Amino acid sequence: MSRFVRASGALLLSGALVVPSAQAASAEPEQDPAGEADFTLTLLHGNDPESQLLHASGEEDFGGAARYTTLLDELRTAEAAGDGAGEDESDHRGVVAVNAGDMYLPGPEFAASQEEGAPFYDAIAAGYAEYDAVSMGNHEFDFGPDVYAEFIGELPEGTPVVAANVDVSGEPELAALEEEGRIAPSTVLDVEGEQIGVVGALYPDLEAISSPRDVVVDEVAGPVQDEVDRLAGDGVDKIITVSHLQDITNEEAVAAELSGVDAMVAGGGHEVMAGEDDALVPGDEVTEHPGSGDPLSYPLITEDADGADVPIVTAGADYKYVGRLVANFDADGNLVSISDRSGPVVVDDSVEPDPRVQEEVTEPVADHVAELAETEVAQSEVDLDGRQDPGVRTQETNLGNLLADSLLETGQENAEEYQVPEPQIGIQNGGGIRNSSVLPAGPVTALDTYSVAAFANQVAVVPEVPRDQIKELLEHGVSALPNADGAFMQVGGVNFAYDPEGTAQEVDEDGEVLTEGTRVRSAVLHDGTVIVEEGEVVDGDPVSVATNDFSAAGGDSYPFRGADFTVVGSTYQAALEDRLTGTLEGVVSEADYPEGGSGRIVEGEEATEPEDGGEPGA
């Protein structure tokens, strides 16, 4: 197994991921001049394509599944032939291609696959990429396990989904795929006579950020090490992991608990790793390591449990890069060097699109998106603010109000059908508002609603929440300030005031309150009911809440704490579109949604007095 350079590490004892010290975060891998390469493995890798099938967001000349496929094929052929190989590389060589997950993401391009009779376009693209293995990602579960099972079922049978720490036995469709060998803890590849083990892993706290239902995710290090040991016992002497742990420091933490892993491919963090001379997509910058602040060079070197150095690599997101790690092994399977030509390769318009992907994926998806872009659902009299910071993750905005009102209205309209109380409050987490921009006054299209409400989140009603828990929810919404945070809430049906100098509420990952918050000073429902006065909860009836199922299930650590909730037959995107075309009759007025918000969330001791009516938007 790999033993070549020394660096620093960290600790992972359970599901908790601990940030390492990362003193060598940007260190270039040293080569062992005494080591002689007996085999050179080129690891081609991608991660987080996230249904950006047409091109990278805002960059039409970069990315896209069709160009990515061509570049991957060209690199696969060139690397197998040894084109451009350095003196440190072996003539005995092979290539492996993997993807570290988030193969699709709810949004307008993914919506093309949801049309009746349409194929799973992301699966078609992945099929033509001919990956040797892919990891699970969190966004694969945004539509629930059944949709993910459909995706896997449309992958080529030779592309296994690897996940050592995931139990899918509670989901029949995924369990059937596991029985067929389509889902497995690992796979072993025969590459030019060499055995290459690929072990997968997924973020342990999946339930807090997606909708896995009865899929169970264990901590990472133990199950992965068990699988590594099993492969090593079978004589596999070159092992890589392909994992989706959301953050490069989480990968380092896991590496510190493992032994016998030669390289790690990471996904979920969208980090850009590169050397000084590597080309990048315009607007991209090399990511700074969260611990050291140093730029992440390619690869990142970290230390495993035995003191051996392990290279970690990742390749941005959105089909913008193909990562290329050229690893040299000696005759005993030890990693002796990383070739200095390793690094990210940009997917740009110099690459001819793969004609198969162009015809079967790009063209039908582009047609669908064009149709959405031409479908006007409203005219807005005002700019609608969906920026993140300052914006929906730090303060009330009119677009945030519109989303929260849409949840509340849908919850109220569908309450009788789904046998739940009519909600009185709407809560939309700021992290779920995804356009990250201002929609200018003028036409609002169906495509805009997808860019704003990009996930598959369902409108959910949490019935009869006690008032002290309502205060905890409001406290959670402002607990991260002044920092921007996805948990910052946009609200409907309630106005509240907070003191930024008060004690910030702290909760654990299960939403249990560890430190009581004192920031929320006043809260009043839009029908005039006072919930909080002078920082104290006013006794009274419980309050039902409309939110999205991500938040209701404890996403962003919202303190619902396992409360029962009911999804009420609509995604939050559909709720937004329905409000625009229905109640608002195609007009977003300045009176209803003034720029800067309408005073629903203010600093101070007294909440703004609500207008009469109690209807969403009032």
Automatic annotation (TrEMBL):
Does the keyword field hold Hydrolase? yes
The UniProt keyword set, sorted, is: Hydrolase, Nucleotide-binding, Signal
Recorded hits in Pfam families, A to Z, give: 5_nucleotid_C
- Residue spans of biased composition, Acidic residues class: 604-618
- Signal peptide limits: 1-24
> What segment(s) does the record annotate as region Disordered?
586-618
Q: Which PANTHER family match?
A: 5'-NUCLEOTIDASE, 5'-NUCLEOTIDASE-RELATED
- What protein family is recorded? Belongs to the 5'-nucleotidase family.
Name assigned to this protein: 5'-nucleotidase C-terminal domain-containing protein
Instruction: Record the organism.
Output: Nocardiopsis coralli
Question: What lineage is this protein's organism placed in?
Answer: Bacteria, Bacillati, Actinomycetota, Actinomycetes, Streptosporangiales
